[in-house]
Amino acid sequence: MELKQLITFITAAEHVNFTLTAKMLNYAQSSVTSQIKSLEEEIGTPLFERLGKRLILTEAGKTFKSYAQKIIALTEEAKMATNQVRETTGTLKIGATESQCTYRLPPIIKEFKQAFPQVKLIFKPYISNEQAKEQLLQGQLDITFILDVNRMEDALHVESLIQDEIKMVAANDHLSCGFTSNIEGSSKRNSSADRGRLLVPHAL
Question: So what CATH class is 90-201?
Answer without folding.
Answer: alpha beta
